[in-house]
Each structure stands twice: as structure tokens, then as C-alpha cells.
Design a protein that fits this description.
The complex is a heterodimer of chains A (348) and B (324).
Chain A: H1 13-26, E1 31-32, H2 33-39, H3 54-69, E2 75-77, E3 90-92, H4 95-98, H5 108-119, H6 127-138, E4 151-152, H7 162-171, E5 173-179, E6 188-200, E7 203-210, E8 216-220, E9 229-234, H8 247-261, E10 263-269, H9 273-282, E11 294-300, H10 304-312, E12 318-322, H11 324-340
Antiparallel strand pairs in A: 1-3, 2-3, 5-6, 5-9, 6-7, 7-8, 10-11, 10-12
Helix pairs in contact in A: 5-6, 10-11
Chain B: H1 6-26, E1 30-31, H2 32-39, H3 43-54, E2 72-73, H4 75-81, E3 83-84, E4 86-88, H5 100-113, H6 122-134, E5 143-145, H7 152-163, E6 165-172, E7 178-191, E8 194-201, E9 206-211, E10 215-224, E11 246-253, H8 257-260, E12 271-273, E13 276-283, H9 286-294, E14 300-304, H10 306-321
Antiparallel strand pairs in B: 1-3, 2-4, 6-7, 6-10, 7-8, 8-9, 11-13, 11-14, 12-13
Helix pairs in contact in B: 2-3, 5-6, 9-10
Classes of the chains: A alpha+beta (348), B alpha+beta (324).
């Protein structure tokens, strides 16, 4: 950034952003870029009437993005008499699209629940969004009921792919990422039009349209083994919509269908950790046996490798009866664990 | 989980200004203390925001930010009595809409909360989600959390927390020992699908964390709790180390580090070679460790001490025997 000889008074960033929002809300017909840069607080101090304003223009571009990210509908209006001429584009924020609709109001109980819903994200990715959403709710002036005592629920997204994917979902851009399918030795680059991110059975999945295969695919975020790249290619999600259904609901219904159709028979030993925990999760009317007795459980799953990991952790407390493929997976894992922990370590 | 960078701070401040203006418009007069409390911010932060609003406005006809083009407040009341009275307003009349991501975050959070017994009423939650959708400036991002089963113990514990009575239950420790425990329930916490009870354990005379799926035969007693939630400070992390904990050297695939991050002590050395990280984890005993390692076969390997390797190998070997 070039520094002019007489340094203009410094206007704080939030003052410049706030002034820009106010100016664009107040205009009916919109303001051109040069009108904005020459008159709006925070820009005007740095505007050179006959000079080079390119750094100020870049500042304006970034500010626009920051403002839009807050959900402020900053519009670009093409001037009919000079279509395509960048300098004649006009910017404005239509009040109707900015104002929270008058019929959207919340009761104290609802605000309490929303406060807890926001707190679910207190760690990581969406914590900033939750915090800002709460701020907007408080703007309505309704006091929440007493805070919910006794609860501290939390969603924790461990996968680093989550953040870029939520951005891609919002911007409707195609993404690329390396994906490692279980059983394959190397990852493969996938090019996907992302439609939804859903958590099912505690795991985050991306559902989208594979641009090479040309069909809907679901990916486990934990198997995205490298950086997610957002491309500049924008797509229209509407062309993939079926029966007007929300993408996330559809993805969840599909995962649920897979989960229900995959069934394993296992035997757990009564009184063990496996019996207590798996029994709670899957056992419905299973009579608990006396300690040490075998108890049969029917277990649903959506991914055989994930279930195999989970069952292997219970060691001798679980015996897989069927399907044979799951038996093999669990046995191979246990054998590998034995092999890795027997004898001297190679370079201890 | 890096903290927000500088421009994000300015963004948050802007969101605060846009939220504060309509609140002040609705209240003819409000004290700095009350408004700060309402928004959950420091009083000085609120004063700063009011000062900025009071000198802000639109360029106006003259492009010169004339007084009529600016917000104004009753300065005497503000400076002498710490009271805020907005005397002139421009441009803004209403609260701003939610962004697509903000609405999506709250909607997914609500979906997650349907696991709580008091939110089992799906209609109420559904109408709330519809309102958030209507209140967003663009269709909320497609983010959803599947409804999960409610643990039946949750409702009982929740009622006990409110009533302030002790609970009693059978608990199976990761060592495989089953004991009847009596606990002052202080808080129900969760991480994704796992739910925990945190409370004062009368048997161990200490704060303990219990997995709900290891609890059996839970009953609420008539005995009042001895510690109130406000009396004891619950540590931020679910599990805290004790001096008896042992350090175990492990090798783990770099991609699996997030799965064991909770067990890696702060400041533990980490060295990477060929996508495998060598570091140490802290465990109370090897019986919890053997389950963790057997569930991450081929990804997590124990190197030292030898006894820990033996415990893991014996556990997996006993599992293999079941298939012979």
C-alpha cells in the first residue's frame, strides 16, 4: 500500500464498514464506485480526485466481501445505458432485503433454546457465525429466559475439510479434494459440486455431484486426506434438485436407508464394556445375560470399515458372526494390532 | 481452530453496530450497564460502539456528513449518567437478517439438540427452524445433523440437576470394574454422539466425568446434593490428568492426530517422518489405552513402555482367539 505524503486521519475499519452500509442503505438508485470512494467516511479521506485510487478500489472490493459475509444483501445494479462498464455499476443495499421480516420474532423460551443451539458450536468452525447470529437475535430486545442450567452440548468438527466445504456450499462452487477409499492404496482427486454437509451417526459426510462420474456421491470427511480446493466454477444447485426436497434432508434419508439395510450379527459378553455400550446403542429387547454369558446383538452400519474399527476396539468382548466380510475386517485388524505390538520395537 | 484474524474482528464489530442500533431505537432510554449485559459485552466496549454510532451517518445531499445526516444521542445523559438516548437516526430501521451460514449454524445446532428430552417436540423446533430460514438473507447452507436416540438416563439426570438431588447408578469403568456410584449431578455435556455426566463423586470424593453409555440402573435419590453447580468449578476439559497418569510413546499417522489430540499432553514433543508422527499420550492406565489402540489398527502403535505394548498385544490376541 502506498503512503501519501500527508497521512490522512486514520478511520477505524469498523467505522468505514459501518459508514458504507449506511450509505448503501440510504440510496435508492445506488452509488457508483467513484461516488462511494470520494464521499463515504473512511474512503474519502484517502481518495485522490485526479490520482490513482487502485489500492482504495481493492479495499472496497474486500469490504464488500466482508459485508456480504455478514448476510447483508449488497447488490450490484447494472446501468442500462452502459451495460458492462465497470465504472458505471451502481451499488446499493435494498432495505426490504436487509431488514429482518416483521413477522420473524422470537419468544424468551425460543431465544433460550437458540442460545443453546449456538453454544453447540462454541469450538471451531461455526463459532463466529453462531456468535454473530446471537448478536442479531439480541438486537430484537427480547430477554432470554434464565440460561439453561445443567447442559453443555457440543458439536466438534475435527476434519479440516469442514470449513472450506461450508464456504463452497454457500458460494455454490465446485471443489476438488484427494479422497482415500478404504482398501485402495492411494488417494484419488475428486471434483465435486457440493450440495450438502450432514452428520449421521456422529460422522460428517459431504454429498454432491461427482463431475467425472456424473452422479450423486457421498464422502466421509475423515477420508479427505488433503486440502480442499475451491474452484472458481459456480454451479446452479437447482438443476440437481429432486422433488423440491432439501439436499441435506435427502442426503440424511439416503444415509439412513443405507444404515438400516446393512446389518451385522455380533455376540457380546454380558457385563463387559461392549455389552453395556453396544447394547445401549443397538439392543432393543435383548435380555441382559448374567455376567460372562454371550448375548446376541443386531448392529446396523453405513460403513463396514468404521464398524470394524469400532468392534476391534472391544477385543475379546465382541465376536462377529456375520457378515463374513465384517468378520474378516475385524480379525485382520486384531491380527495387525498383535503384530505391531509383539517383539522389540525396530528403533526404540 | 485458529482465532479469527484482524478483519474478522472488524466484521464482528460491524455486526455489533448493526445489531445495537435497532435495539437502541426500541428502547427510549437504556443504561450502559443494562445494554452491555443484554449483549454480553464489556461496558467500555458498548460505550465505544455508542460513541461511534453517534458520529456516523450518511454523506447526505452535500456529501459532507452534515449534522442532520448523522445519528445523534443525548450526550449529557450519556457522559454524565451513563444513559443512552438515541435522538436522531438515519438509514437503519430494523434488525439485520441472518447470513446463510449463520442461519445454518443455528438450524444444525437445533437439530443436534433434539437429542435432549425436552426438545423431543419436533413441531416447536421445526417452526423455529422455519423462522430462521425466513430471517436469512439467502437460503441457509445445506447443513444438517441427524436426529439421534435420546439416552433414557438423560431425562432423569436433567430432573435431578434441577431438583438438586443426588443420583445413584452402576458404572462400568474402562478397567472393566463395575461399582455402584453416588454422584451430585452438576452438568450434562456432550461431544458429538457421546454424552457425559459430570459431577461430584461421593465414592472417589472428587469431580468425575461419566460416559452415559456406561451407566446402568440410574435412579434419582431424595438426598440433596452437597455441592451446588456454582460451588465447584468444572474444568474446561472433560478429562483432566492426575499425577498418577503414565506417559506412553506412540507412533500415529499424521491424519489421525485429531483423533488422539485429547490424550496428548500440552507441550509434548512431536517428530514427523514419512507421514507418521511420534509423540506421547497420557493415560490413567493401560486398559483404556488398549481399547483406543485396537480401534485404530494400523494407524496408532504403542512403542514404549514394554508393559503397555504387552497389554495391547494381549488384548488383541484375546480377540483373535475368539475366531479360532
Amino acid at each position: 500500500m502506498s503512503r501519501s505524503s500527508s497521512s490522512p486521519p486514520r478511520v477505524p475499519v469498523e467505522e468505514r464498514l459501518f459508514s458504507l452500509v449506511l450509505a448503501l442503505l440510504a440510496t435508492e438508485n445506488g452509488l457508483t464506485k467513484s461516488e462511494i470512494l470520494s464521499t463515504v467516511q473512511g474512503y474519502r479521506q484517502r481518495y485522490e480526485p485526479h490520482g490513482d485510487n487502485s489500492s482504495l478500489e481493492r479495499q472496497f472490493e474486500r469490504d464488500k466481501d466482508d459485508i456480504r459475509e455478514l448476510g447483508v444483501p449488497l447488490e450490484t445494479v447494472d446501468a442500462p445505458e452502459a451495460s458492462g462498464n465497470n465504472q458505471l455499476l451502481r451499488y446499493r443495499i435494498p432495505k426490504g432485503a436487509y431488514d429482518l421480516p416483521a413477522d420473524v420474532s422470537f419468544s424468551p423460551e425460543e431465544l433460550t433454546l437458540l442460545g443453546l443451539a449456538a453454544a453447540v458450536w462454541r469450538e471451531g468452525s461455526l463459532s463466529g457465525e453462531s456468535r454473530r447470529a446471537l448478536m442479531k437475535l439480541r438486537s430484537l430486545g427480547v430477554e432470554a429466559d434464565d440460561p439453561v442450567v445443567g447442559y453443555a452440548p457440543r458439536l466438534r468438527v475435527r476434519e479440516s475439510a469442514f470449513d472450506p466445504l461450508t464456504q463452497a456450499l454457500e458460494r455454490h462452487v465446485i471443489v476438488q479434494f484427494p479422497y482415500l477409499k478404504p482398501g485402495e492404496s492411494a488417494s484419488r482427486m475428486r471434483t465435486i459440486a457440493p450440495l450438502s454437509l450432514v452428520q449421521h451417526q456422529g460422522r460428517w459426510h459431504l454429498q454432491g455431484i461427482d463431475q467425472e462420474a456424473g452422479g450423486s456421491r457421498t464422502f466421509l470427511l475423515s477420508r479427505i486426506v488433503g486440502a480442499v480446493k475451491l474452484t472458481a466454477r459456480v454451479f446452479d444447485p437447482e438443476k440437481y434438485r429432486v422433488d423440491g426436497e432439501a439436499f441435506a434432508e435427502r442426503a440424511l434419508a439416503e444415509l439412513e436407508r443405507i444404515w438400516e439395510s446393512n446389518v451385522a450379527e455380533i455376540e457380546v459378553t454380558a457385563g463387559t464394556d461392549a455389552a453395556t455400550r453396544l447394547g445401549k446403542r443397538y439392543g432393543e429387547a435383548v435380555a441382559a445375560g448374567a455376567d460372562g454369558e454371550p448375548v446376541r446383538l443386531t448392529v446396523n452400519f453405513s460403513d463396514i470399515n468404521i464398524l470394524a474399527d469400532q468392534l476391534a476396539s472391544f477385543g475379546p468382548e465382541v465376536l462377529v458372526l456375520s457378515p463374513p466380510e465384517l468378520r474378516d475386517h475385524v480379525l485382520r485388524r486384531l491380527e495387525a494390532t498383535v503384530a505391531a505390538h509383539t517383539g522389540e520395537t525396530s528403533d526404540g | 481452530m485458529a482465532e479469527r484474524r484482524k478483519p474478522m474482528q472488524a466484521q464482528d464489530k460491524l455486526a455489533f453496530l448493526l445489531a445495537l442500533v435497532p435495539y437502541l431505537m426500541d428502547r427510549d432510554r437504556v443504561s450502559v450497564a443494562e445494554a452491555a449485559e443484554h449483549f454480553g459485552v464489556e461496558q467500555e466496549q458498548l460505550r465505544e460502539a455508542v460513541r461511534l454510532i453517534a458520529v456516523s451517518g450518511i454523506p447526505g445531499e452535500t456529501n459532507a456528513y452534515q449534522p442532520g445526516d448523522l445519528f445523534d444521542i443525548a450526550w449529557d445523559d450519556f457522559e454524565e449518567n451513563d444513559q443512552i438516548i438515541l435522538t436522531h437516526q438515519v438509514a437503519i430501521d430494523d434488525s439485520p437478517r441472518f447470513s446463510a451460514r449463520e442461519a445454518a449454524a443455528l438450524i444444525a445446532g437445533l437439530q443436534y439438540l433434539t437429542a435432549l428430552p425436552e426438545n423431543a417436540d419436533r413441531d416447536a423446533v421445526g417452526s423455529l427452524m422455519a423462522k430462521l430460514t425466513r430471517g436469512a438473507s439467502a437460503a441457509p447452507s445445506q447443513l444438517a445433523v441427524a436426529r439421534s436416540e435420546t439416552d433414557e438416563a438423560l431425562a432423569t439426570i436433567r430432573d435431578a440437576v434441577i431438583a438438586g438431588v443426588q443420583v445413584e447408578f452402576d458404572y462400568l469403568s474402562s478397567r472393566g470394574e463395575r461399582e455402584r456410584r453416588r454422584v451430585d449431578p452438576l452438568r450434562i455435556e456432550s461431544v458429538d454422539q457421546d454424552w457425559y455426566l459430570r459431577g461430584w463423586d461421593h465414592l472417589r470424593t472428587a469431580i468425575r466425568t461419566f460416559r452415559l453409555d456406561r451407566i446402568d440402573d440410574l435412579v434419582a435419590t431424595d438426598e440433596p446434593i452437597t455441592y451446588r453447580p456454582g460451588d465447584v468449578k468444572l474444568p474446561e476439559t472433560l478429562f483432566t490428568g492426575t499425577p498418577e497418569d503414565q506417559l506412553v510413546t506412540v507412533e500415529v499417522s499424521a491424519s489421525a492426530i485429531p483423533l488422539i489430540e485429547d490424550y496428548i499432553p500440552e507441550g509434548a514433543a512431536r517428530s514427523e517422518r514419512g507421514g507418521v508422527i511420534r509423540t506421547s499420550v497420557r493415560v490413567a492406565h493401560f486398559h483404556g489405552l488398549k481399547r483406543l489402540v485396537a480401534g485404530l489398527s494400523g494407524v496408532l502403535t504403542v512403542l514404549d513402555p514394554p508393559e503397555a505394548r504387552q497389554v495391547v498385544a494381549a488384548w488383541a490376541q484375546a480377540g483373535v482367539e475368539r475366531y479360532r
